[in-house]
Amino acid sequence: MAGLPLYVLLCSGEHEKVQMAAMIASVGAVSDRPVEVFVSMGALAIFAKAAPAEGRYHGGAFARLMREKGAPDALNLLHQGRELGELKVWACSMALDLHGWEVDDLVEGMFDGALGLTSFLSDAESGQLVTL
Amino acid sequence: MADQTLDVKGLNCPLPILRARKALKDMAPGATLEVLATDPGAVKDFAAFCRATGNELVASNVAGNVYSFVIKRAA
Lengths: 132, 75
What we know:
The complex is a heterodimer of chains A (132) and B (75). Chain A contains five helices and five strands; from the N terminus they run βαβααβαβαβ. Chain A is of the alpha/beta class and 132 residues long. Chain A has a five-stranded parallel beta sheet with strand order 4-3-2-1-5. In chain A, α4 links the parallel β3 (87-92) and β4 (113-115). Chain A is globular and about 40 Å long. Chain B has a single domain (4-72), classed as 2-Layer Sandwich (Translation Initiation Factor IF3). Chain B is built from two helices and four strands, in the order βαβαββ. In chain B, strands 1-2-4-3 form a four-stranded mixed beta sheet, with helices on one face. Chains A and B meet through α1 and α3 of A and α1 and α2 of B.
């Protein structure tokens, strides 16, 4: 019994927002909702293969608190959502182009490919859109 | 007595739900999973999770600061 599809537009690379996007996407996926995440703007750099494991995320006081208390890693939450439910993650083709990257430059096993905003927005008409 | 027990005490949202989903995935339809959690949000979260997925929330209890749930896997 699939629920209403959930579309997450992740633009910010701020730790709090990436974490919330990963939480929404993973919980949605394991709650039998088809989920699609579109990663654009500053958020794409979080997913760079070359990003250092330490210091991948940037943020303020709450981000520090999450690190200190060992909050689950956002990328790991997304991986779990993909493993346990119907979760697709798309890289914004414009953001990829600005960085001069290919999908292969992004973390392994995370992305379903590159996508344009028009296509994502068109698909999102059939569900609920969350922007972070 | 549930067929399987999952201890997620000390874990915060959304890990209890993700772990429960993972455990249920490998269980047979009709089998029961007992979940032990300490996150107060888990009470409403597990009720919502079961509503959304069609799994049956057979029991929801609290003893001290430990919340326990019994979930019957949907057919």
